[in-house]
Amino acid sequence: MRVKVLIVEDSKASREYIAAMVEAVEGVEVVVTSSGFEALKLLPRHRFELIITDINMPDINGLELINFVKKNPNYREVPLFIITTEGRDQDRERGLALGAAEYLVKPFLPGSLEALLRRYLKLP
Amino acid sequence: MSPGSKALAEFVAEATEILDALARDLLVLDERRGYEADPDLVNGIFRAAHSLKGLSGLFGQERISRLAHGTEDLLDRLRLGKLLLDGAVLDALIEALDAFQALLGEAARGTESESLSARVEAMAARMASMGAPTEVAADDPLDRLELEAQVRSVFTEYEEHRLRENVRRGVSLWRVRAAFDLSDFDKGLAELNARLKPLGEVISTLPSAQPGGAHGIAFDLIFGAQVDRVSLETGLKGTPAELSALTVRPAAAAATSALLQAAQPAATIRASGGAKSETRPGDAATHDGDAGSAQDAAAGGLAAPDVPVRVTDAAPEASRKGATPSRGSRSSAIRGTSADAKDSPVAGHSTSPKGGGKKKGARATPAAMPPEAQPPLLSHVPEDTEPGLLEWPTSDADVPANAGGSPSPTPVPGPSSVPVVAYLQGAAKASPKGLSVAPAAPAGAPVSAPAALTADTSLRSLTQTVRVDIGRLDGLINMVGELLLIKANLQRLAESARQDGAVALSKLFGQELARETRGLERKLEALQEGLLEARMVPVGQVFDKLARLVRRITREAGKEIELAISGGEVELDKLIVEELSDPLMHLIRNAIDHGVESPDARLAAGKPRRAVVGLRAEQKGNHVVIEVSDDGSGIDEVRVREVAITRGLITFAQAQEMSRRELLNLIFQPGFSTARSVSELSGRGVGLDVVKNNLGNLSGIIDVWSERGKGTAFHLTLPVTLAIIRALLVGVSGRTYAVPLNSVLEIISVQPKDIRTVERREVLDLRGQTLPFVRLSRMFALPERPVSRHFVVVVGLAQERLGIAVDELHGQQDIVTKPLGGRLQSVRGISGATDLGNRRTVLVLDVAALLEEGMAVERRRA
């Protein structure tokens, strides 16, 4: 039984890149979407063990997604990682304040992501 | 294709897409230069740069990534209001776009030139240090907004900035709450957004944390309204939206400090922009107009709350709420201006699908400017370049990037910026002749072109891809489905024929077979047509790229030009559109650099100072005619004649007989144009033979019209597609040739006695007109057969006509022309070969070349 990770990122290049990184970890299945709206729709349909989301997206922003997840009794236990860009400190701080577990700064090292995934997904 | 090159192709295709979008948005921004930028637009451009950075980083394209990083950073400061969008910033962005395109070109070719790398470094550094910071208010207007901290905490920095801006301007803010079904809330939200957008700005969309029932979801939209409550309620009728107003506490306490703040931004701008002479009516709504509003504030002794500059359409709302009279009156004046601008009958042609109305406004306003005011386009003319005297290498298009090595023609912002009016006057004093209608080149070295001009790479796309509308593809797939059905029927017929044997082949069976075959034929035709359509792209694709180029060349050449584009929706084969971009670029350059006079010279000639360069496409039957025109000084045919005689292209006797049109067309002759003739003929004729050849390769022809003092127009006549054409098969001395039907005008039958010889040249009388006439047999040195009558195929492109005598007519057929390889390629009069169904290969006549041959013969006779 593989665990599902949701990746929300509107930039195709980043999305594919992160998806490839996450998929490389054994026992993980990846669901990707380019929009916050789609993420809202996907949430009730899957049981995600982890959500990785970008902050700046065209429809709803990542902070709103975090807030939505953290306020909803069905999802509030799901850990969230935010993807941020260097220098966007305020957005990052807000994400963490809203309950995001970790933040990833683009471009990040694949090694660090894998270690984080293993820790939060409780993989061996 | 190796994995590496496949990845590269993928990168180039995606980056091209991003850059195209970026370019479109920048164009809109540039057209609205001097006006307040649409925050959505700036945010969109920021996102494009952001995506490009991510993409290039992923593919290890470090130079693009580096520049994208700098650009993104600049745009981020812009959209967060930390930087003002002034002319220098916009120029930097446009320059960055050019650099991105050059970089992508090099990436596609797998090269890395050092000059470009240096340019990237310089640009990134310049962008980092760019711009005057906007004044940060001591008190945060957001603190006056009554909004739960919880809601505020989910805003991104950008959303918070937009909210702050709206509060600062006194825009009325609303919370629009709407609940939708979870399965299709995005549709509902999209509809709600579409309703809201014309009424103001959707600042943020927040999904409500409260679960909206089992299958529902609620959203809060934070909305800055440009209209009053009644209009807002009317606009939202029929949607599930509920409105509640957000309260903003008045900033009365801050009145004194607001007065101080009011003066500050203006001071900052003065210091950074030098004494810009860009102020114009209506500018009070822009950043550049800060100086004026600061004066107002000082004179009146009373400032509207907060920074007074950015009056928007929402201002009446503010005045209704009791803002100062000065602010109210100014805002209404501005609204008047922009409304006038929209209504004024200027031939505005939309170049991109976005915001046609806005652009009309943008164009119309400069026309209403006092003559001494300069449009912002002129503000960065390199100081050492005289208007109207720019030159470029005749080979053009593939000039090595940045031959001069100088980083950029755009001066760094700051005190070094030269006030435009002063600059132009100075230039006029220094070289009065330089601004005359036909400027004389300075003796000796020509003025070197600025780097950006030479750094131009071709406008051709870097990818060979065609984007096809999914509807079209579905149509094609449907057709294939129907073909399969016919195939099944035919199979069934074949099977029954096989089982029943030859005896049972009834008449009925034959009829059924014939019906299926007809069906097959129809479907195949439709499939072919559909596939051809899939290759078609709107010619506007290349027009958009040219529009960008025009803005830049205009800026660099110190001219004032309005580009009038029309017919961008006309479709042409992708291949033709691609091949067309370079010739069109060449013609447009000619028009701007040499066809159009300087603003002063135009005024002196009694013309409006702003010239019009037209770019028009129109479908005429199987052809598309593209016109590149200008209302400049025109071509002097007397000078053309002199030059042609001097260069030995025609004899004096020939010249005597030539019509004005024939004389003008001499400019396409190879050897006509040289660097020197640039100045002799107002620059016409630079490498036009190259343009003509390029068009010839596309089975197109070019024609010129010009009138002294009125302007010049080039007409390019092109076939709609090159892929599959319908051809007339003709027989000559027992051989078969194919003539593209799109150039066949008519076929007539003539008797030998109808053929006259005029000056050793055969001609026909066709309804009173003399028609040049060639015998294909003689042309290709085939044995001639004695015939009692000739079939004459009358071919024509644009205004050229020629009669081609053939022995037989074999009918029409669709053909796919294949190029002739190697040595045969240079055979005149043959464009390629085609395979007929019966395994016979025939040659396809090159009508454009034959017409030209006919004209050349005409000229040679003497």
UniProtKB/TrEMBL annotation, chain A:
GO BP annotation list: phosphorelay signal transduction system
Pfam assignment, any one: Response_reg
Cross-referenced InterPro entries: Bact_response_regulator (IPR050595), CheY-like_superfamily (IPR011006), Sig_transdc_resp-reg_receiver (IPR001789)
Key words, A-Z: Phosphoprotein
Domain Response regulatory, chain residue ranges per copy: 4-121
PTM sites of type 4-aspartylphosphate: D54
SMART domains found in the cross-reference section: REC (SM00448)
Name assigned to this protein: Response regulator
Lineage: Bacteria, Pseudomonadati, Myxococcota, Myxococcia, Myxococcales
